[in-house]
Amino acid sequence: MVVEGGRRPALWSQVMAEAWREALSDAEVRELLEMRDWRSWLSIAVDWGTIGVALALVARWPNPLTMVVALFVTAPTPSSTTRRPGRSTIPTCRSPRRSR
Q: Which H or E element spans position 81?
């Protein structure tokens, strides 16, 4: 996909980020990014509700298809598992191996 200016973005998320920047004002972006307790609790409730429904589905109809559906519904998204440089979530004691 080529955007204005003839350049091709490296990631689809970059295209979407640019589209949101054009569609929303700075004040609207700040309002959406502001942490609110009720949004946080709602997010946690929806996450655990989804996990509970997936487990109930497998318990009620235990077959390979429902297990695959439950795995796909509860699997983390690629953006939630992406490591950012300098922000490792897993502590490590060893340095990375170097090829010889």
A: helix 78-81
Q: Which residues make Cβ contacts (< 8 Å) with residue 55, sequence separation at least 6?
A: 70
Domain boundaries, the chain: 1-34, 36-73
pLDDT tens for 64-78 read 999 999 999 888 766
Q: Give me the amino acid identity at 98.
A: R
Measured distance CA(66)–CA(54) in Å, rounded: 8
Torsion of CA 48, 53, 56, 57, to 10 degrees: -140
Point out the least confidently predicted range of 5-14, 42-51, 79-88.
79-88
- pTM of the predicted structure, to 2 decimals: 0.52
